[in-house]
Every structure is written in structure tokens, then in C-alpha cells.
Amino acid sequence: EYEEKTGRAQRPLSPKQNVRKNLDFEPLSTTALILEDRPANLPAKPAEEAQKHRQQYEEMVVQAKKRELKEAQKRKKQLEERCKLEDSIGNAVLTWNNEILPNWETMCCSRKVRELWWQGIPPSVRGKVWSLAIGNELNITHELYDICLARAKEKWRSLSTGGAEVECEDAGFSAADREASLELIKLDISRTFPSLCIFQQGGPYHDTLHSILGAYTCYRPDVGYVQGMSFIAAVLILNLDTADAFIAFSNLLNKPCQMAFFRVDHGLMLTYFAAFEVFFEENLPKLFAHFKKNNLTPDIYLIDWIFTLYSKSLPLDLACRVWDVFCRDGEEFLFRTALGILKLFEDILTKMDFIHIAQFLTKLPEDLPSEELFTSIAAIQMQSRNKKWAQILAALQKDNREMEKGSPSLKR
Amino acid sequence: AVTAGGAGAAPRGCPNAPLDPDHLYNVLFVGDSHVGKTSFLYRLHADTFNPHLAATVGLDYQIKNLVVDNKRFALRLWDSAGQERYRSMTKQFFRKADGVVLMYDITSAYSFSDVRYWLSCIQEAAEDGVAILLLGNKTDCADERQVPTKEGECLAKEHQLMFYECSAASGHNVFESMVSFIRLLKVREDELKSKAEEAPKPPQKKKGCCW
């Protein structure tokens, strides 16, 4: 297997070697430095001075050559690194396609696969891996998507013609609220990743995003459209075909954490925040105390991060890497990522007051380095006194239920 | 030991920037989705219009320092998501607000009719006597206007709100409305202060009668 890999790595070397040869040439651009004698109409330099100047000139040339060489080496190294990265992505694609994906059930949990997964899934197989990892507990078929979409289109038509009320089979929300929801989808689509310019009116993915969100409100009228969903659907659209994106979207939103947030189940959201704080205090006690002192509660930054699964607050490629591991590890990775971000910026954050922390965390630096973030996330321990995330969360949920039973008025 | 690799990524001069403001106010922005809350704040912050702003999810935060009448004011601006569903999350922040900016879109009668609903939310959740600024945004889209200026004025009068029409796109009345609002906030603060000074007097009187 090893040989196979190295063998593959060597084949694409030929074009690369060409480039490298070009970089090995002697630095020649010192031509800008030419030692000229004095113009003939001026008295000649004394021999001693001429000698000195020549020496100075030679030193300058040596320095310039050194600099050039250094730069050439730097360029060469960068190129090599890029080639190495491309090679490793190329290799990873082959490993995912030929080894892992065909044997998904048996391999997905192996250590080797988990490690490769952590490195980031190559974009070309990302959608497939996400689909498999998210699963399809809801058994949604392409046909069901078509049915939901047809219904959504019917609603849009009746809405735009002001026609008769579509039958109200869905309880819970008023017709006006649902209407507003459909209207809101339209407004939000062009406000989803506006800088990418692909979801706006007339953009290539405008209708796809509209369709998926509309179909979802017909599939789950009890949940409807909630701001933040458009970002999740958009990320899926960028990696999957429309119907598959819908299937992944519906199943993803059906996960307990996402359901709690998108239905705005306050009690459950507070439980998630409380569980997060247990690990926050355990991992970053100093920063935790600073946040407490400044009354900075987790909802202030977590709401945006969890609702959009980081797709709005992190650079998109980095957000996708977070999604990769989220698909592998589940909801706890979302909270681990939050702690990784806090850890990465701990020094800066401890010097800020409430509003500056809030401002900083809701607008993270655009050049956030992915390797550093993932190193920081890796250093976060998701075990508190031998208890794992799920156990802490379950215990808090139990406490909550008992408290609510005991004294209904004692809610926060 | 942790080294934050992104030290250079911190907002420049941010932690110490506000040179001890004389007054600090928390201002919450509310109103229907897509009326222009985030764009207004962007205009206030960068003095340009950014047509490519993403929809707000939950809350956004911004700080703005302004000098008005030779006094330094720091505004902590809380930008909330407009969707109904998020309202229950925004509620807790009403209580902390010194002022609320309630925005509607003059090209959307719907957003204007929701103003009454927002007012009831403010009354329910905010402190009594919270300063409220009613803003009709998007005056640059005069052709699409659905809400006459008169109607905004009437509503403001009825509920004793400060009222402006503005445009985050053109910049019309953006700074003017905020400066007026700051003056109102200052008046409210002074009123509260003088009330607070009056309040602890009774025990002092008691002391007085002991001699």
C-alpha cells in the first residue's frame, strides 16, 4: 500500500520537475549593478580609490546574489509545499474514493479513517462523505423532495396571485406567519454569502437555494423557515446536488441540537449553554472567569455560531473543515470548535471588555489561520471529571426536568 | 501557556480605543427583517453603504464613539435579527437597553404596521421610560414609498417617540438622528440621576431629626 502511494506520488513529478529546474538557475538579475568607470571627460580615479570602489562593488554583488538566492529558495520551497499539498490531496481523494467510500460501514470508524478525516475531506468527495455521515434517518427520497417542492411552488403561486388560502393542514403557526416565512426566504436568499455573488437574484444558485428552503417549509411546517437556515442550505448546495442537499439539510436539522435551536426551545438551549460552560471552565479557567466578570454569557456568541454552523463567522473553507469533523463527531464538535476559537484568541480576549469581546467574536478575523485553529481545537479536552459531553448534557437535562417538575416558577 | 497566533488580527487599537467616554449607553436596534438595521449601523460605522451585508442571526454587536456637545459618548449598539422566531431571545436584551431604535422600511407598509407590535414588545420587556427612536429607513427609494411621512409622524406623536426618516444607502439623516437620540438619552440619564439623588433623601432627614 505504501509503495502504491509513493508510486503515485512520483508519476505527477515530471511537470513539477520542469518548474523546479527553472528555479535552480543561477541568480542573474544583479545586472542592475554595473560598475562604471568615471566618464572620460573627468579626471580618472586614483588607483587606490578605484580599487576600493571595485571591492565595494563586488561586495554589493555578493549581497545581491545572496538575497536573490534566498528568494529563489523561498519560492522553491513554497512551490514544493504547494505540490506536496496537492499531492496529499490527490492521494487523499484516491484513498477516499477507492478504499473508504466503497467500504463505508466497516471503515468509517477506523482510526486511520478518523485521522484522515481530521485533516479535512478533499472538496471533490466532501459532499459524498457528508451525506453518508449525516445519514438519512428520515428516509427522504428524491421523489419526496419533488413533491415538497411542487407544494412550495403552489404556495408561491397562490401567494403572488393573492388566491384562495392553501389548505391549513399544519397546526402551530398562523397563515400570516407562514406567509411571512415564505416572504422572508425570498429576502434572505440574496443575503446569504452575498460576497460570493452566486445566490443573488440572477445568480446560478439563487433558485436552488429558494427551492430547498421552500421545500423544507412544506416538509416541516412545524419548524418552518428560521433565519440562519439559508446559510446551512447554501453550504450543502456548494457540495451536493439539489435533491441530495435537501436530504442532508432535512436530516441535519433533525439532529437534537439543531432542532433545539431552530425551534428556539429555550430550556434546551440553556442546557446546551450550561454544558458548554462546564467544558469552558475546565479548559480555559482564566478566560471563563474573565467572561463571568464581564457578564458575557455564551448565548452572545454561540447563537450565531451554532445556528449557522460557523458558516457565517468563519472563512468558508475553514467552516467546511469544521463541518467535516462535525459530521464525524456530532454536536459536541460544534462546542469544541467554540472553545478552540476562544483558546486561540485567549490572550486578546482577556484584555477586552464586554462589548469588544462581543464585537470580536461575532466578527472573527477574516484571515483566521486554519492550521492554528485546528491545533487549538485539538488541545481542547472534551472530558470533564471523566464525563463526556453527552453525559454532562444528559445530567443537566435531567436536573432541568426535575427542577421544572418541582417548581415551575424557578426557570431562569 | 497559550499563544494566540492571530494577535495581529485583533481590531486595531480596539481594547483601549474609547478614551474614557463621559457617557455610555446601550442601544438596541429592532424592527422587521430586511428594513435595514445592519446597513444603518454599517453606515454609522464606516460612513459608506454596503449592499452585500449578510442577514443577521441572533445578535450583532458594535461600539460607536461620538462627540456631541463637547462630550464623549460611547454607544454599545446591539443589532438584533428581525425574524419573529428570534424575538424570545432578544427579549432579555431589552432590559439592559437605555435606548431602543425601532426601524421600519418606508417602502413596506407591512413593516410599518408591525411597529405597533414592536412597541408592545418594548413596553413589555424594557425598563419604563426607555428612550425610543422611530426610524423610517430607505428614503432613497422614494418611488417605492408606501408609508407617507405624515403617518410616521402621527404614530411617533401618539406614542411620544423621537422620529426621523433616513437612508442608510444615501446617508441621509443617519448621523443627525443618532446625535439627536444621544441628546435625548443624555436628558433621560440626567432625569434618572436627579431622581436617584432625590430618593435617598428620606433617610438623611431621619438622621437630621436626631439632634
TrEMBL record, chain A:
Coiled coil among keywords? yes
> What are the coiled-coil residue ranges?
47-89
Q: Where is the Rab-GAP TBC domain?
A: 120-330
Is Ribosomal protein among the key words of this record?
Answer: no
Spans annotated as Disordered: 1-24
Q: Which GO terms describe its cellular component?
A: cytoplasmic vesicle; vacuole
A GO molecular function annotation here is: GTPase activator activity
| The protein's name | TBC14 protein
Q: Which residues form the signal peptide?
A: none
UniProtKB/TrEMBL annotation, chain B:
Write the record's keywords in alphabetical order, separated by commas.
Answer: GTP-binding, Lipoprotein, Nucleotide-binding
A single Gene Ontology MF term assigned here is: GTP binding
Q: Which PANTHER family match?
A: RAS-RELATED PROTEIN RAB
This chain belongs to which protein, by name?
A: RAB44 protein
**Taxonomy-wise, where does this protein's organism fall, top ranks first?**
Eukaryota, Metazoa, Chordata, Craniata, Vertebrata
